[in-house]
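Batch job 17 of 40 flagged for manual review because the log was empty.
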Amino acid sequence: GSEMCIRDRHKESAQSLSYHIALGGIIAALCIACMFLTGVFPMFYLILPMLASAFIYIMVLETSGYWGFLTYLSVGLLSIFVTPNKDASLAFLFFFGYFPLLRHLMERFRWKFVGFLLRLAVFNAAVLAFFWVSVYVLGMKELLESLGDYGKYGGWILLGIANVMFFCYDFSMGNFPVLYRRYLKPRISPGANRES
């Protein structure tokens, strides 16, 4: 009886592993498709990485933070090579890719406002890192200097707009797990609703 139980456990863990790998492959492919489309629709260079982050969140909800992190890493590294729009791949790497993991982790915080302030701080650090890489590594320094005083103030204006965008994005991601389980998951796997 105990041997049978051990065999069943091994079978379950093997099935679970293959499910995790298969789902990770599908999620990664969807994320890469989003990132690749930023080359076709450059005006959506922030919207598409946001959509990719929703797919990462699905991976976290269906498996765990560990598998979500592995998916983020693989997509992040691949996006550097396959994404024509380098700003989009940087946005995914610096923030949108790992934000679902951070959001999921902070759901356990008793003090919700403290969690929000931490996420806001991470976001602003990511924006500044993104800006630094864009200017000093990708060679946008000349463009910034040509704008003169407007370049200085323009940076602050953009940071303000980015923070407003973050409020909307954070709110959406906060509601995403409920929306996913209630509306999206039953359509993807109809049996899931009966099981839960």
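Reviewer: the log was empty due to a logging misconfiguration, but the result itself is present. The mean pLDDT is 84. Unflagging and moving on to job 18.
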